[in-house]
Design goal:
The protein has 155 residues and is mainly alpha-helical. The protein folds into two domains: 80 residues, no CATH class; 49 residues. 40% of the residues lie in helices and 9% in strands. The strands form two sheets. A two-stranded antiparallel sheet has the order 1-2.
């Protein structure tokens, strides 16, 4: 089977923020959940949408219908990318923290006192915080420690 390679320079060139420098050094962006860097094509698509449509979905006017088409197209593209059964399997939300809080609240209805949820000390607060709130319902939320080499301590 032939190996495919990715041209990391070509990929990096699509992200304007990765061209930034601080004190003559390339900048590093480590807080993904707080502000994921996006490629120029996404920036252009967002500028186009905000400039020409920017409407609520499910309306009877042109910009609302364009919004519906845009959302459906995104769901189709993500379903194909994720190999999902179809676009109806793809949801979007405000941000990861809000989505995780919603998921944790939904799981709290199913979980019972004494049930266990594992998170890691490596997780971003957007993942840790929502699950830690389950402790209030008697759920045993355990944090997996890291070994000095950065791997998970399975004990």
């Amino acid at each position: 089977m032939p190996k495919s390679t990715l041209d990391s320079s070509a990929i990096r060139n699509q992200f304007p923020s990765l061209k930034r420098k601080h004190n003559s050094h390339p900048m590093v962006f480590l807080d993904g959940p707080g502000g994921t860097q996006v490629p120029k094509s996404v920036i252009d698509a967002m500028v186009n949408y905000y400039s020409t449509s920017n409407a609520n979905s499910h309306g009877a006017f042109v910009t609302a219908m364009e919004t519906d088409v845009t959302i459906h197209g995104m769901r189709e593209a993500m379903a194909a990318y994720l190999n999902a059964e179809g676009p109806e399997c793809v949801s979007i939300g405000q941000n990861m923290t809000t989505l995780n809080f919603s998921l944790a609240r939904a799981m709290a209805r199913i979980l019972q006192p004494g049930d266990e949820v594992l998170i890691t000390k490596l997780d971003h607060e957007a993942n840790r915080g929502p699950w830690l709130t389950l402790r209030e319902a008697g759920i045993d939320v355990r944090e997996v420690n890291l070994l000095p080499n950065g791997t998970l301590d399975y004990d």
